[in-house]
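subagent[fold] <- orchestrator: predict structure for attached chain, return tokens only, no commentary.
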Amino acid sequence: MLGIQDGQAVRVQSRRGQVVLRAAVIERTNPGVVFIPFHFAEAAANLLTIDTLDPQAKIPEFKACAVQLMPARERDLENPDARQSRGRY
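subagent[fold] -> orchestrator:
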């Protein structure tokens, strides 16, 4: 996938934000699919999604969004400003 290697620092970016994290390249997901666990602050997957509420369920749309994946610098993993471009809690 795009020459991304297992364990490499990657930047995952959507129209709403970006995160820098370490890639785990596996064969269990379909080609073109990126999965980020949302349980950990260091991954901050919800920074990439939209917080608009579903009109009936009244919950935010935190499940899926389109992203770009690109190599990142190792030092960006240590820099919180590089990991998160949008502050939302």
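orchestrator: received. Logging for downstream: Residues 1-74 form a domain with the Barwin-like endoglucanases fold (CATH 2.40.40.20). Strands lie at 9-13, 18-22, 68-71.
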